[in-house]
Amino acid sequence: MSLHVFAAFVTPLGTAANNRGLTEGNITSLQKLVWNGQVHTTVSAESIRFALRRRLNEQEPCNRTYDDASRANEWKDAAFSAWSGKSKEKTYIDDDLLGFMSAEGAKQEKEKGTAKVRRAVLEVSRAVSLTPWSGDVTFNAASPGATPSAQKKGSNPVPYGTEMHATRYQYGVALTPEALRVPARAVTALNQLCALGPVAGNHGRFLFDFSPESVVFRLTQEAAPRILYAFEPSSRAGGVELAALLRKVKSGDVPAKELVLGGQVVEELGAEEREVLSGAELHAGVVAACRAACKRLEVRKK
């Protein structure tokens, strides 16, 4: 049976805010959704994938890279020729993990269009704020001439507003290593997800740290993740807990032996919770937990 790898991540506390605009009366808004009946802010899976691709490119060449100077994507193999049935070319890690799609319409009437498609083996969920958004907004004023494109006439400051959210974000991933052209890339993916840095957040000059503060891995032969969005705010200000996950372990839906936990959430476990998680690997740090999860993958490969 196939081994599936699932992970739930939660970031440290940070301040999210969107790119600010300098148009009078404009409010730069955060993306939002209703979650458990309340408004939460959210960060797209595409943003996380974009940040991950940059990390992957530091480990081995990627097919798609972003050029900061030209502010455009560049392709090494835009035709994905390495994925044709008879090709012996080496595939790129980002295509292998994150998939691709290249569609072309029919050139003549009655002809069919073509599409080259590979489903992402590494699936990433949308990140959701751990706490509801209370509506925090700042009102500011940019001085005349602050940028070459702003306030070209007059000498009055330019007012603008920005939505903000001081929160943590949580998201999850799913991965089946044997579905990869190079299964060892699963280890690379987990390591880079645990070392993720900036993802979306504020204007390019600010930073929201997406490196996980706590993580839960589940390595299992069951296809259902059951651990995504496992984190909840705890009664301690700024803390996190795993009440729903503990209930699933207690009920037998998630065997404890399939779990590897790391980070602050482990530090906050009480004696009773540790008893429920008996059989799971518990680590004080995220990096140690990631190493343990990767080791399970490598042991299985042997």
UniProtKB/TrEMBL annotation:
A Pfam family reported for this protein in Swiss-Prot or TrEMBL: DevR
Alphabetical UniProt keywords: Antiviral defense
InterPro entries, sorted: Cas7/Cst2/DevR_bac (IPR016581), Cas7/Cst2/DevR_sub_I-B/Tneap (IPR013414), CRISPR-assoc_Cas7/Cst2/DevR (IPR010154)
Gene Ontology annotations of biological process type: defense response to virus
Function: CRISPR (clustered regularly interspaced short palindromic repeat) is an adaptive immune system that provides protection against mobile genetic elements (viruses, transposable elements and conjugative plasmids). CRISPR clusters contain spacers, sequences complementary to antecedent mobile elements, and target invading nucleic acids. CRISPR clusters are transcribed and processed into CRISPR RNA (crRNA).
Official protein name in the record: Type I-B CRISPR-associated protein Cas7/Cst2/DevR
